[in-house]
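Hallway conversation turned thread

IA: we were arguing at lunch whether anyone had actually written out Sushi domain-containing protein end to end. Turns out nobody had. So, for the record, here is the sequence (1014 residues) and right after it the structure tokens. Reply here if something looks off.
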Amino acid sequence: AFLLGGQCDGNGTSTLWRTCSAGASWMPMPPPRSLVTGVAWPTSLVGHAMVIVGGWQLVVVDAVRGHVWAFEDRNMTSVVRTADHLPFARRWAPTLLASSDGQLFLLGGRACEGGGGSGGSLCDGSGQMGPPLTDIWKSPYDPLLPGGGGWTWVTANWAAAVASTSAPDIAALTSEVPAAVALARDDTLHLVARQGGMVFVGQLPSSDSPAMDTTFAATPQLRQPGAGAVVPAPERVDLHFSEAIRLRNPRGVRLMDLITGAVVPFTPTVQRQVLRVERQQAAQLLAGRQYRLELADGSIEDMAGNQLRSFAASNFTVEQDTSGPSLLAVYPADEAVVAPQTVIMLTFDEDVVNGDGFLELKGSGEPLLLRAREASVVGSQAHFELPKGLAAGQRYTVTVPEDLFLDRSRNRLRVPSIGPSSSFTVLASGTSDATPPVLMMSSPEDGSTGVSGGLRLLKLWFSEDIFIARAEDGNTDAILERPVTAGLSIKLPLVSSSVASTHGSVLELSLPSDAMGTAGTYRLRVPAGALVDGAGNGLAANLFMTFNADAPDVDPPSLLSLLPDFEPSPVYQQPPSTTLVLTFSEPVHASGRGQVRLVPLGLGRAVSLEVATSPHITLAGNQMIVAPPVDLTPGEAYSIELDQGLVQDARGNLFGGSTAATLRISIAPMLQLRELSQRASLDLGGTGRGSEPTSGSPTLSSALSAAFDAANRLILIGSSSGTADGVSPAVAWRLDTKRGTHCASALEESPKCSQTSCSGSSPPTLGSFAAQRRVWRSSSNGGRSCMNEEGAPVDRVGEAVGSLSGSCPCPQCFVLPPGPVSQNASVDAGNFSAVSAAEGVWPLTCTQGFAPTGPFVCQTDEIFGGAWRQPYPVCKPQPCTEPPRMVPYQDLSTAGTESECGNVSHRSPLAHGATCTMRCQAGYMPHGTGLGQGRFVCQGYGKYDVQACIPQVCQELPDAQPNAIIHCPSDRLGSECQVLCDPGFEIVGNSTIRCEVTSAMPEAVPAFTAPGRC
């Protein structure tokens, strides 16, 4: 037995104590050696949990810091941190259990935060104890990294796993930490509730599916195409199921031609909850044929392994329409002469939708391409606005490709004979435009019926750019004539920007909110002079447009139903991958704003999806299918929030939203618990401070300890609460479970990897491991035996069960390289993440002028961790890789590429501190060093310490001639001196002498010129 750490000593401890005498004596063990460089065993541990896995390996979960530690030998001398972050909330004193197959289970504890008080955290040594946590987590067996293989939810609330029929007061348990938790030797979980000492039992889950999930709903929530639908030939068929599925037998998915009985070559795939059957390239669905998607029993299954049975197939029919639309007319007409602000209008023999092609308008230069998706389409007409500035006098030809538009059945334009062509000419420069603008199309269409009574905008497309005439030029008021029952006609002043606006060739008219209040026939009249083109031409006549409107629809869509059904109280039966079906009162589509949110009532995973953009939301008619991209949390209850306005009906009426209390579902946990019927069989076998043994169902302290003895009896040691003197006596209870002990097997020791360094790729490995599983606990009392690889039972301790082998993952360096390791160096810690020991690197950053000798390199240290290779890189001054810049008066012979300094380059760098020779021009010398001693010195920034060339001095003045004196203010190169004669004498020769050189040799010494005579 082991004790570790402490929670009473404020200084804390991480000493591991061991007893081999049932606690009669305890021995402290030396601190273990961490097998991961830079990751040290902590000096204190509080609020942790620990368990022995496989009969010998001690695993510690530090849920305060978010770490998992596993001891790697039976003597507890070495340890490795197998996880450095955990997905669940920080907590104090959870319970850690290990199943006979090595899985880890973590239960409850107290939250580190949320205890009130000073605002601190109990886990950090301040604050108060946080609220109880009732969740359960699972980590799969990993022979190399126990607890490091990831953690998943078992249930967000242990009480959610209690069968509702066995305990009427389950609601009281949902916020209660069990008084004690223990795992029997047959892997049954036993939880003892504080209130009344109720004992709940359940089998630990061996899979990631709810324990009670035993059915698969065979009826899809949505079929696309729908049952009995008549549709264009689809590229795929989709079935949306109520939970995540997987293909079990792809051959059992068949798309049948009901006329020939042949199987159409389609490929089935699964995208979480959707079975998608996509058409292969050669497959053709024929017009007028009926098809059926058939799913054989067992062809698909849910994530719990429940197979599809008795699928009700449905038929769909491919439309008869296989003929594409024909082009009837093109504007401008062939050989027309038009204004530069013209438009292009195409008229077809049926309604069309935008395709993916480009309309080509070709003149003398590069063709102009107009994207089909940018055209305005109303019914069978398509309107293209042209860029401004078509060349005057230029002839243009319109070309219409087959993919420009499609009909409602997705048929392309007919080819090769698409229809009439058009070649038109733009008015020549200086030619006046006398053609008035013409109405080309409108929305709603002239003569249309069934127009929405909520219409607020009229749009009219003309043959060229239009403008609203000035009010002083005449009548500019349009009139909307309404049915008699609707009252007087409405004046629409076009000069008002709140009523009318023009955009190129388009006129938009905004209608008052009450303009369309009655069903009936409406007529729009626009005076001839109200609109003009760029040349000032008005309409040829008054414009009239008539349409028939329905009564306005002002009722917003409402939510009729939710699948799965709303739960007034959680029942915890839905699978984690459950799909939601929301049915509205009328067909809806996304409004462009708003979310669907699944909000957990506890600590579970939340999901938010944008209706307009999420691929996990499907809108079909009056239904919205919400398929969360991740599993919802087992054992969690969710409220479903729908934003106001997230969908709208065909008239634009927005959905009113929902509140959290309106829609609720709950998710099944991964285990199921039942209450033991023999509650009275808890024998109170201990005494405390003179109390006598009693029977009944006490209220238990939450500080109980629990364990199973060799006979699989549950032993509880602790206290009950509510004693008369306020002191709780220590009491022991015993529960005879009458359960057998399962055989358990495990590896004898931690696996050894076959390599000492990583190799390979995608990903690199440390070789492989192979180890023997042997029995460490025999079965008894009818418990389950271990089975060897041949399927034969084995049960003796030490007997071989089978081998376990696999790849050893390449370890990583988990901590930053040491730093700074040299001057002018730093290590970037801002975005550090673990680095692979397969020669993974982390950079060393140097200050300007210094360069690293290389990066830090991670290499294998132990199988569990890497270490940074030594010696560590350092920052060294950068060499000079370019010649020094010339200084004034430097001699060119020392600057060319053949010179010592001029030869410096990337291929021939000059080391830091090294020098190259510099010479000055004749008459100059290097400052500070003297003649012939000039040097450029390479400094630490890849630059040079330079010397200046300064003028030399003339060393001696010429001897003065008789009757003369020489006046020299300076003796430096270039200076001049005056030769002055005594009174009565005059100069013959040079009256001025100069300090100058007579040689071109570098650094030649200057001298004064000869003076004249007096």
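OS: looked through it. The radius of gyration is 45 Å.
IA: good, adding that to the notes. Residues 684-696, 722-726 have pLDDT under 50 and may be disordered.
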